[in-house]
Write a structure and sequence with these properties.
The strands form 2 sheets. The chain has a 5-stranded mixed β-sheet, with helices on one face. Strands 4-5-6-8-7 form a 5-stranded mixed β-sheet, covered by helices on one side. The chain is α/β, with parallel strands linked by helices. It has a single domain, classed as 4-Layer Sandwich (Purple Acid Phosphatase, chain A, domain 2). Strand 2, helix 2 and strand 3 form a beta-alpha-beta unit. The protein has 3 helices and 10 strands, in the order βαβαβββαβββββ. The chain starts with a strand and ends with a strand.
């Protein structure tokens, strides 16, 4: 299983949309908001399922604040993350992951690549497609192999 993970594109996807649309062996697209509709459009173009959450700049869409699902026995969640101050965000995300028994929780908002891994949970931020902080524009790869191993990595949007 292989998911493409994006966040914080803010409508600025024209420059690199083809890079994602032309990816192969993708089982779904996860978008942590800002802009929800960018992720929806990309997933439709890629022909894959879409799992998204609206962010604090998604004013013109009716979308969930958080989405939870299960695939291949793994429980996933996605939320933008603006609901908490930066100083409290990780602890709040850890509580949310525990509350919903998630193995993977994707978030955005900070425009920074972040990854926190414990024996039970991955909490990851793919960075930003627009105005990233401390890295080039990026997206994430979330993979789950036949041996049951979860992994998260980043790739550059160009």
């Amino acid at each position: 299983m292989r998911y493409v993970v994006i966040s914080d594109t803010h409508g600025r996807i024209a420059k690199w949309a083809n890079q994602l649309v032309n990816l192969s062996d993708v089982d779904g697209l996860i978008c942590a908001g800002d802009f929800y509709r960018d992720g929806l459009w990309l997933a439709q173009k890629m022909g894959v399922p879409y799992y998204g959450a609206q962010g604090n700049n998604d004013h013109d869409v009716h979308a969930p604040w958080a989405t939870f699902w299960q695939s291949h026995g793994v429980r996933f969640g996605v939320i933008h993350g603006h609901q908490w101050p930066a100083s409290q965000r990780l602890a709040a995300l850890q509580r949310l992951a525990h509350q919903f028994t998630l193995q993977v929780l994707v978030f955005g908002h900070s425009h920074k690549r972040e990854s926190y891994h414990t024996s039970e949970t991955w909490i990851v931020n793919p960075g930003a497609g627009f105005r990233p902080v401390q890295s080039p524009p990026s997206f994430g790869w979330l993979t789950y192999d036949a041996e049951g191993s979860l992994n998260f990595s980043w790739d550059v949007l160009s």
